[in-house]
Amino acid sequence: MGRSDDGDGEAKMEDGLYPLRKVPMANPEQRPIDVSVPLNTGDVREFRKEMGRLLEDPLGVAESIDQFLGLNIYTWVELQSILGILFTMEEREIIRHSGMRVWDRERQGPDLGDQKWPMRDPGWNNQNERHRKNMSDLRWMIIRGIREAVPNGQNIGKAPSEHQGKDEPLADWLERLRKALQLYSGVDHDTAAGQVLLKTQFVV
């Protein structure tokens, strides 16, 4: 299995994904063992066609991805690869900011969100129990980050995304988009998430 980092923290899998899955033993007194279960990147691309759009239905997308990932344990590289296939760079940024915010709000512990979701491969080993806990936490952050990526996300489609009016100055149009996004998404356009949302809606 080949792995690479393109220099900006985004992981790429060159052929496939190999998450771990717990498999029960024939003897019920023995503990389940973890085995690698190949997941073809083509399967992820096929799933992308069915999962819906993040900004239109974040709750539905989160539920679909949660079911797609199942109970498997994914490394940092594998999770970033899956996100890279399913979402644009702007959407991934929204999800990460949201996931870190939820972690810092709901989880008690010494590690902050940006430590739990590192930008670069931390080298987690799925045979290491502590590292596996980090992988599970990151998976949790991803799903929660998707769920809360866009507050009142069901209304985001109401924000105007049409082309700039024929005689409308660019600055006026941009300000109109900013106000509409804040109204329908509940996100302050001056925040990092707001800037990313604006970028995804900006149609010239």
Automatic annotation (TrEMBL):
Cite the record's Basic and acidic residues compositional bias ranges: 106-119
Q: Where is this region: Disordered?
A: 106-130
* Residues in Core shell protein Gag P30 domain copies: 45-192
What SUPFAM superfamilies does its record include? Retrovirus capsid protein, N-terminal core domain
Q: Which Pfam families match?
A: Gag_p30
Q: Name one GO biological process term.
A: virion assembly
Q: Which PANTHER family match?
A: GAG_P30 DOMAIN-CONTAINING PROTEIN
- Protein name stated in the entry: Core shell protein Gag P30 domain-containing protein
